[in-house]
Amino acid sequence: MSQGRHQITYDEGDQYEGEWNNDGQRHGWGSLAFADGTKYVGKFEVGLFAGGVLSFPDGSRYEGEFIAGKYNGHGIYTRTDGAKYEGQFAEGKVKGFGLMTFADGTHGRPRNEGQFEGSALVNRCPSKDSVRRAQQAAHVIRTQIAAQSH
User: Fold this and answer.
1) What is each CA distance from 50 to 28, 63, 68, 128, 139, in whole angstroms?
2) What is the pLDDT of residues 61-114, one digit of tens each?
């Protein structure tokens, strides 16, 4: 595949539409729809997710930063039931400081804010900076995606 914007359907049914580099890798802005219904829209770097929105068939989604194709940095993961985690991720997992918000808009009693390791809150503490950075990362990604679609 040459550099530029192209569309391709892979043998397993996945479809990519977007930019490519000279090495034949997804690189730049694009969308990748998997045969199972999962869809990623955002930036690619050397073939891997680099910042965007990953939506799953069950309705859950992640919006934010990626490194080497995995959730990494700041972002927001929203579950199908409406609960969401806003904060830090590492190696594709919840890891770091953040805030859990339940579907009813509450944060639990006591408040589920602090340092998380996966689904476990290991240290309850204020995490406003990480939450703000997660919200900002998700907002920037959504704004960039909207600009690319026009």
Assistant:
1) 9, 11, 7, 24, 15
2) 999 999 999 999 999 999 999 999 999 999 999 999 999 999 999 999 999 999
